[in-house]
Queue: 2 jobs
Job 1
Amino acid sequence: MRSRQLESFILVCELGSISKAALALNIAQPALGVQIKALEREFGVPLLVRTVTGTHPTPAGLLFLEEARLMVRRLEDLKRSLREVAGQVPRTLAVGLTPSLSGLLAGRLMERLHGALPGVELKLFEELSHALIGHVASGKLDLALAYTAPHSRMLHREARLNEALCLITHPGSRFDGTGPVTLAGIAGAELAMPNEGDLVRRLVTDAMTARGLVPNVAFSLESMQAIKDMVRRGLACAILPHSAVAEDIQAGALVIRPIVEPPLMRTLFLIRPAVTEPNAATAQALRIIDDLLDELRREDRNFTVAS
């Protein structure tokens, strides 16, 4: 069994087609088929099955796919470490933040990493949580702070902070005020919300549904900037974390009110690959991130320690 065979098998499973995988790998389809057959002979079980909808892993193939991804990731990490030790490539550290966290932490994080890790090339990626999680699993990122990290053998995840969701409205609206509001009290408000499938929208919808309420979604928007613009124009309210609107609140452009009965929370996870132990640079970065998150919790009461 060779790493090339593992990579080929993974691609076939991801594309659901031997012909598409062969095209992507720039090899003949029969040659790719020979690689797959060799794996099946080596392990003594069928790994793939052809159906009218494409080529899919068998139950044994699903188990093999998970192990193959782990093995390929370990090999890639080993190659990178060897090249760094040999001085063939610069040492790097790639970190991912969500857009809301980037505005709060990016500058301080890069400044402290730069001071603590001389000679290490620092890379910062700003993406939504699901994209960051995928980048950690694939090896593009060494560390990420993301929400709703799933259980996975590819990922080591640790809950760090809970972040409250709040009602966001514009000054002078009927929901303008300083005290908390209940979920039932804002059930009739027209809302600008992220598109279906977004974590915040799922949390709001599930909480309302559990209480016999239906969210009044007037605008479904992919862009956070567009959501905030709808609220600033007085066209709707929003339910968002404070981190997403901190600058607007400070500038007086928006009003924030805590939600109670029930409080709505999302959990922030620190994520790294599970297949390798942190090297010295990553371990130092973990300590710096922990210190920053502790500072953030003290600065913003909407963040609390995750249990």
Job 2
Amino acid sequence: MQATYEQVAPRPDASFHSFQRVEPTYEFAWHYHPQCELTYIVQGAGTRFVGDHIEPYGPGDLVLLGPNLPHTWAGPQLAGRQQRAVVVQFDADFLGSRFFNTPEMRHVGHMLEESRRGLRFVPQQGESSQLIQQIKTLPTLAGDVQLVSLLGILCELSHMPSVRSLASAGYEPSLRLREQQRIDEVCGYLHEHFTETIQQSKVSRMLRMNPAAFSRFFKRATGRTMTAYVNELRLGLAARLLIETNLTVLEICYRAGFNNAANFHRQFARLKGCSPGQFRRQYTTASQH
């Protein structure tokens, strides 16, 4: 089973990504990314897969994953409840290459090294309430307050005695560093230019590959064609504009990078299961209740 690459892009005004993941189900999506990831399960249950380790998860599950470690959480639909988690994604050197090697942060640096196999924390009754509250409120913060809160969380986790590794000592991610750098370069370019006309021949030349070899490489790394990947980026922008603006559907079509309205409607319906107009009305109706 080949893990697919996931591009993690923090907001322009933030150095890391923190969000609530709320979905009816957590679909099995075996993937990896260069960022560390901290996940706290607020609600829900299912099975957690990390490297070669598999075990059930439930409310209170708290896991830190290192860079490029394949993983997924797979949770079924539960009666009257959604799957709900807080997720934090950050580069190990997002504060500089030596920050976590300083004397004051050496425990955090060691924890990040150990997280390459995945770490599960089991907070004790007395130490859990404040830490968990910090994690749950992190996505609602911004700026320096959010950064200081994340550092406090990492520091507290690094001193927690009840922690165990997940993937076995012999498990190594299959992705080679050179491949990771290449797909990261391509996906970064696509995220910057997806509203423009993108030619696969030009992107393949960035990696000094012929178009056929590039096509195989991209699909093996991401699990989709480059065209499908770009369309997903465009449709994500279109959905946000439908929710947040009063632009017409046609204006949104062109702003998102589509040059054909019929193709835009077809691709939107395929991915979202409804037309752009229906999608907008669903959010308008929900906001009025």
